[in-house]
Design goal:
The protein has one domain. The strands form 3 sheets. It has a 3-stranded antiparallel sheet with strand order 2-1-5, with no helix packed on it. It has a two-stranded antiparallel ribbon with strand order 3-4. A two-stranded antiparallel sheet has the order 6-7. The chain is mainly β. Strand 1 and strand 2 form a beta hairpin.
Amino acid sequence: MTVSLVTTTGTGTAKKTTKTKVDGALSWVSGCTAVWAMKTGGVKLTEGKAYQLVVAGVPTAENAASGANMAMGSLVVSVGKVATGGFGYSSA
């Protein structure tokens, strides 16, 4: 799983798209849930910017009953911040 900042400059034939990797890594996986955590420093997520999320594999259900209830091909992306030590969090 990778996240990149996508920046587009210019128009027409001079249009250029640049992708800058946001430093982070997959930090937790459980069943159908995967958490990608940013590392401190480097590129930060900024409101109003474009980002690309690439998932290299598809999570599977924890068991057959859960698998039967999965919506095929769905992906939910939530952006949040975890407080120091994981004592509090916010997400959107």
